[in-house]
Amino acid sequence: MAGDTFTVADITAFVMCGFIKNLDIHIDDNLPALQKWQQRVAERPAFANA
Question: Domain GST C-terminal spans what residues (predicted)?
């Protein structure tokens, strides 16, 4: 998330972002950098094909 390389922290954070929806917590327009990051991760082949 904070660096140029994809790490286990990115994987963990991406999964957590999916789980928080169950708690009615949404990543909205107030967090544009997080939205961009989440979109980039979701487009990675490993995630897109899962």
Answer: 1-50
